[in-house]
């Protein structure tokens, strides 16, 4: 029997993951059956189960892959001195994440933002998936914290704010932007980049006025 190349195995795995992602984005994890996935990828049950034991393993692999690539990008940025500015960094990482999945489409719209929302929904009733997401989130958050420390060390960011607070805020901005795309349609990452750039360029008036103008 001819030996199957690693390239072929990787391509088949990619085909299955992408097909499953489309199914989950279209109908949600709970309403998607393995038969739906088999039909989407046009493969036999044996071919699919060779790689994944079921829906839980599929969605775990999809989530792990995305979070792994995002974490690696931010960890690489954290090693730079200084790290790239936050607006450019976020746009670059999110842009690559979306571009890698731009071929995945549901009802004429990108599937990835819808998939993200579906995953969030499923974590409310799936503790194993919630654990995968939690671990990935914490690793991304830790990487962002190191990036913020790099900004502070380089004098690019005020030092009286906890790095973890900034990290959580940056992650929230990205997740919120993805949620908007799922609800209201695609938007270029430059929208988020420009918004962050404007916010981070605001003057700190406390020093000039002696206090906050709120309250």
Point out poorly predicted stretches: 207-211
Distinct helical segment count: 10
Question: Helix content range of the residues, please?
Answer: over 70%
Give the overall pLDDT as a whole number.
Answer: 91
Main sheet specs = 2 strands, antiparallel
Structural class: mainly alpha
* CA distance, first residue to last residue: 77 Å
Secondary-structure element order, N to C:
HHHHHEEHHHHH
Strand order of the largest sheet: 1-2
Please state the CA-atom Rg, rounded to the nearest Å.
Answer: 20 Å
Percentage beta strand: under 5%
DSSP E strands, number: 2
Instruction: Note the overall shape.
Output: elongated
DNA-binding region: 33-52
Pfam family, one: TetR_N
Domain HTH tetR-type: 10-70
InterPro entries: BetI_C (IPR039538), DNA-bd_HTH_TetR-type_CS (IPR023772), HTH-type_TetR-like_transc_reg (IPR050109), HTH_TetR (IPR001647)
């Amino acid at each position: 029997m001819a030996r199957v190349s690693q390239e072929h195995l990787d391509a088949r795995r990619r085909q299955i993951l992408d097909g499953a992602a489309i199914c989950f984005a279209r109908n949600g994890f709970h309403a998607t059956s393995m038969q739906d996935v088999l039909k989407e990828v046009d493969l036999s049950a044996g071919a699919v189960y060779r790689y994944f034991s079921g829906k839980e393993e599929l969605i775990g692999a999809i989530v792990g892959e995305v979070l792994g690539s995002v974490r690696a990008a931010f960890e690489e940025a954290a090693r730079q001195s200084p790290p790239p500015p936050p607006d450019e960094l976020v746009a670059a990482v999110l842009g690559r994440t979306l571009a890698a999945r731009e071929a995945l489409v549901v009802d004429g719209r990108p599937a990835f933002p819808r998939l993200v929302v579906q995953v969030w929904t499923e974590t409310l009733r799936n503790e194993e998936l919630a654990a995968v997401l939690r671990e990935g989130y914490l690793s991304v958050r830790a990487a962002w914290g190191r990036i913020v420390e790099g900004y502070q060390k380089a004098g690019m960011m005020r030092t009286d704010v906890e790095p973890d607070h900034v990290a959580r805020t940056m992650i929230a901005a990205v997740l919120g932007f993805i949620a908007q795309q799922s609800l209201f349609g695609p938007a270029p990452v430059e929208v988020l980049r420009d918004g962050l750039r404007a916010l981070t360029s605001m003057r700190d008036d406390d020093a000039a006025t002696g206090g906050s103008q709120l309250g």
